[in-house]
TrEMBL record:
Family: Belongs to the FtsK/SpoIIIE/SftA family.
Identification of the protein by name: DNA translocase FtsK 4TM domain-containing protein
Protein localization: Cell membrane
Signal peptide: none
Originating species: Hungatella hominis
Length: 983
């Protein structure tokens, strides 16, 4: 009985509490309590952190015997449990506590904390394996604790348990492996960085390093080749018949190995050099026999190394033949052939070469030994006597003659090359006249093959001098030009800073939308069905697509239901759903359903960053991809401006046009290099696009003056014509073809080489302002560009808030096939933009009907949003990186010098060409109105006003009278008279 009473009392109290808490208490008390609620939680966290800090400090200091008896006990406890890790355990514990408290409730933080604990345990295990004392047979686990507590070594009790356990199961090596794996796993979990990628990037770097080395090798190889070619040419100048001296190393063999793979080429090269040098050594002997016949002709050092001069008569031919036979043998064959040529003289040296196939660059080195040098000493001395080989020359020493195996590093290779070819001071040229004396009198020169050539020395001397003078003059000229060229180049270099794409982190990321409320959509669908049913229209809702700002319900009408009946019930549906506005798409293109678009209760913004990060944008092939927004199904919409090829954006003020243009420009900034895409921005509103001034994509500063704008359009027309001429010249059809062709041109040098052309996008924010100033001209330019510029890679993006027919004229409309309609006030405006109703039902704030060319019907899209702050951040990033605009002065000048719009036909102070007609018209109508002139002659306000002033000056009309029209002061006859007088 007492128990029952107690229960009752409890329940009563609970009930009371509930009542008091929720309803009974006055409102202000509740709100005060709500405000006070976070306090206990906050205080608790603070207290825990402070206490854990104090505990950690005591534990830490204990490790260093700073906390008395208790401290000593704590020390032995920590070291006994964690071993060496015990020294840092208090710090880790404190950090862990703080981390846990600040991330309470976050499962990811808990997971990370677990990973840290795992790492701690694994480290203890590793410490024990490395520094701990092993338990022998019969050893107790507590022995580890005692040892660790005393010495602080190893991994303590935890490490001991882990290490001993693992060793007993999988042995010591296994234990190491498992513990390392555990450490790596915990590191991956803590850092969330991929270990595999780390290894990959490491090996990638090694690969790149090797590749770079290979490239350098290749360059050196090319340099050598060039050097030899030059030396050969110089030799020709000296009058030595190379045809006759090329017997040992004919050109096609020696120098025409253009296409070999770099490494094998290098190997062949080395082998080749050895072979030729050896042949040279043998040639020395031969030369001795000829000494009397041609005493003055000394071999070019380079030729000695090539082994091309003075082979034994007949031997060279044999070698050439041999080589022909063994052409496919590659370097090894070459080496053998050369070796065979001297084999008879040096059998003891070359015996090693017999088993040298397959041949290898490294293998080649030992063949040319110091022994060989010693053994050929007699030959050299003979040659040196003959004056054909001088040891004192820097090319003749044993160190330089042989390429040693040690000359492997790049610098050493370079040094060796310098030594081998001392004449290689490219800039100075090869000065043979200093090295070799040219005979005073005509001489008979005997070439290697035994040919006798009569050389006219004087002529030769003159030739050399002439060549030298020519060269000096050329150098002088070049030096003169150089400063200018350098200046230009420097400028170009400054400008050609590599474009760094701004990081997407500069943009705001959208929050993930709340969970899809299935129930709510179902209810709306049922309501829809019910409403239509009430009017006798049977439909079934077949699909619901939920977009960022509207949801589309797809209805399938029953047999015999007319689509027009559903459309006619739009207002009733609106009423029953209590929706601000609905749009009916009847039928949905490509579906046998009618779509009813109902605005969402909550409008989810589509942030530009979300679209830029989407695969659709990232993987889009076009450089001028435009991140439009998300469609009704929440799918990312990305389009190619190049395919549009021109775009008209129209909508009432505040509907989102400027934001749309910003997203378009930002898409280009994030996708295209300024080398490939250039922008021209026309912003008569001044404030909208000026923020972009300075970005590298701009071809000229943002044009804010409407008069200059028509100049910019005229420039674009001229550029388009120019491009077409170039296309015709290169026989291509469009920009893509032209750029591809230009890229493949190889035979034209850099300066004259035609440059690749960028795509140009002309963005006009407010066409109406331009059309006011110079309607005729602007319309003409826009139409010309729109008709023809697609293939030339010039695209127009035109925005206007006045979708009236005198701004978006029929001509412009016909030539700008892609449209974006934002919210407009009437169906008439909607029809002006997209030739159908619908835009008047849009919700504003980026809600658009996107109607690209080739699409049968417009698609409803919620435009991406980018704020002015984000735009500024991106522009600042580009300018801070030094990527500023390199405005084209040519374009600027052209635009500045273009006649101001409106003046084009009028001309300065002169009488306007419409003066006479305007005078007659005004007299005839007896009404002097500027607007009337504008309409009649299809001219801008400025021009019409100027004509009126001229008429007033001539006395045809009176002075201005405020808002009243001017008086007409002349009759038709009087005006005729005036004209006859030559006015
Ligand atoms: N895609 C969008 N998502 C969300 N809000 C948007 C979006 N586009 C525009 N808005 C909102 O609408 C406002 C007006 O946009 P915007 O300045 O682009 O209009 P506009 O059509 O250019 O107007 P005007 O013709 O007067 O310059 C913006 O400040 C912004 O708050």
């Amino acid at each position: 009985m007492p128990e029952t009473t107690k229960k009752k009392t409890t329940s009563k109290t609970t009930a009371k509490k509930g009542t008091n808490g929720k309803v009974g208490r006055p409102k202000n008390t509740t709100s005060r309590r709500k405000a006070a609620e976070p306090e206990p939680e906050f205080i608790r966290s603070e207290v825990i952190i402070i206490i854990s800090f104090a505990a950690a400090a005591i534990l830490f200091l204990s490790n260093f015997h700073l906390c008395g008896v208790v401290g000593d006990f704590l020390r032995s406890l920590q070291l006994g449990i964690f071993g060496g890790i015990g020294y840092v355990a208090p710090v880790l514990m404190f950090a862990g506590t703080c981390f846990y408290i600040s991330n309470r409730g976050n499962p990811r933080a808990t997971f990370k904390l677990a990973a840290v604990i795992l790492a701690l345990i694994s480290l203890c295990g590793l410490g024990e394996l490395l520094f701990g004392t092993r338990l022998g047979a019969g050893g107790k686990i507590m022995d580890i604790y005692v040892t660790a507590a005393a010495s602080g070594k190893g991994g303590g009790l935890i490490g001991g348990l882990l290490a001993e356990g693992l060793i007993s199961i999988i042995g010591t090596v296994g234990a190491y492996l498992v513990i390392l794996v555990l450490i790596i796993i915990s590191a991956v979990c803590i850092t969330e960085k991929s270990f595999v990628n780390l290894v990959k990037s490491g090996s990638g770097k090694a690969y790149h390093h090797a590749k770079e080395n290979m490239d350098i090798q290749r360059e050196i190889h090319a340099e050598r080749k060039e050097e030899r070619r030059r030396i050969r040419e110089e030799q020709k100048l000296r009058g030595v018949n190379l045809d006759a001296t090329k017997l040992e190393a004919p050109e096609e063999y020696d120098y025409d190995m253009e296409d070999e793979a770099a490494y094998s080429a290098e190997a062949e090269e080395d082998i080749d050099v050895h072979a030729r040098r050896l042949a040279a050594v043998s040639a020395v002997e031969v030369t001795e026999n000829r000494k009397n016949a041609a005493p003055e002709v000394r071999p070019n050092p380079a030729d000695i190394f090539r082994g091309s001069i003075f082979p034994k008569p007949g031997e060279a031919e044999a070698a050439a033949e041999e080589r022909k036979r063994g052409e496919n043998m590659g370097a090894a064959g070459a080496f053998q052939t050369a070796a065979q040529a001297v084999d008879a003289d040096l059998p003891h040296v070359y015996s090693a070469s017999e088993d040298s196939v397959p041949f290898d660059a490294d293998d080649a080195v030992p063949f040319v030994t110091e022994d060989l040098w010693e053994s050929t000493a007699h030959l050299r001395s003979a040659e040196s006597d003959a004056g054909a080989f001088d040891e004192s020359d820097d090319y003749g020493t044993s160190e330089t003659l042989f390429v040693k195996k040690e000359t492997k590093t790049l610098e050493e290779m370079e040094v060796a090359r310098e030594e081998l070819y001392p004449t290689d001071e490219d800039d100075k040229g090869v000065n043979y006249s200093d090295t070799f004396s040219i005979p005073e009198e005509p001489k008979r020169v005997v070439t290697a093959s035994g040919k006798v050539i009569e050389t006219d020395t004087e002529a030769l001397q003159k030739k050399v001098e002439k060549k030298k003078a020519e060269k000096a003059e050329k150098e002088k000229e070049e030096a003169g030009d150089l400063s200018v060229v350098q200046e230009i180049k420097q400028k170009e270099e400054v400008v050609k800073k590599e474009y760094v794409f701004p990081p997407v982190t500069l943009l705001k990321k959208g929050k993930s939308s709340g969970p899809f409320s299935d129930k709510e959509y179902r209810e709306t669908a049922i309501k829809l069905q019910q409403t239509l049913q009430n009017f006798g229209v049977g439909v079934t809702v077949t699909n619901i697509s939920c977009g960022p700002s509207v949801t589309r319900y797809e209805l399938h009408p029953e047999q015999g239901v007319k689509v027009s009946r559903i459309v006619g019930l739009a207002d009733d549906i609106k009423l029953s759903l209590a929706a601000a506005d609905i749009r009916i798409e009847a039928p949905i293109p490509g579906k046998s359903a009618v779509g009813i678009e109902v605005p969402n209760k909550e409008n989810n913004m589509v942030y530009l960053r979300d679209i830029l990060e989407a695969e659709e944008f990232k993987n889009h092939a076009s450089r001028i991809a435009f991140a439009v927004g998300k469609d009704i199904g929440g799918q990312v919409v990305v389009t190619d401006i190049g395919k549009m090829p021109h775009l008209l954006i129209a909508g009432a003020t505040g509907s989102g046009k400027s934001v749309c243009i910003n997203t378009l420009i930002m898409s280009i900034i994030y996708k295209a290099d300024p080398e490939d895409v250039k922008l021209i921005m026309v912003d008569p509103k001044v404030v909208e696009l000026s923020v972009y001034n300075g970005i590298p994509h701009l071809l000229l500063p943002v044009v804010t003056d409407p008069k200059k704008a028509s100049g910019a359009l005229n420039w674009a027309v001229a550029e388009m014509d120019d491009r077409y001429k170039k296309f015709a010249q290169y026989n291509v059809r469009d920009l893509k073809g032209y750029n591809a062709k230009v890229e493949n041109i190889k035979d034209i040098e850099d300066e004259n080489r035609p440059k690749k052309m960028p795509q140009i996008i002309i963005i006009i924010d407010e066409l109406a302002d331009l059309m006011m100033v110079a309607p005729g001209e602007v319309e003409d330019s826009v139409c010309r560009l729109a008709q023809l510029a697609r293939a030339a890679g010039i695209h127009l993006v035109i925005a206007t808030q006045r979708p009236s027919v005198n701004v978006i004229t029929g001509l412009i409309k016909a030539n700008v096939p892609s449209r974006i309609a934002f919210a407009v006030s009437s169906g008439v405006d909607s029809r002006t933009i997209i030739d159908m109703n619908g835009a008047e039902k849009l919700l504003g704030k980026g809600d658009m009907l996107f109607y690209p060319s080739g699409c049968p019907k417009p698609v409803r899209v919620q435009g991406a949003f980018v704020s002015d702050t984000e735009v500024s951040a991106v522009v600042d990033f580009l300018t801070e990186q030094g990527m500023t605009a390199n405005y084209n002065p040519e374009v600027e000048n052209q635009i500045a010098s273009a006649p101001a719009a409106g003046d084009a036909k009028g001309g300065g102070n002169d009488r306007d060409e419409y003066f006479v007609q305007a005078g007659k018209f005004i007299i005839e109508k007896d009404k002097a109105s500027i607007g009337m002139l504008q309409r009649m002659f299809k001219i801008g306000f400025n021009r019409a006003a100027r004509i009126m002033d001229q008429l007033a000056e001539a006395g045809v009309v009176g002075e201005e009278e405020g808002t009243k029209p001017r008086k007409v002061l002349m009759s038709a006859e009087e005006f005729e008279e005036l004209l006859e007088q030559g006015y």
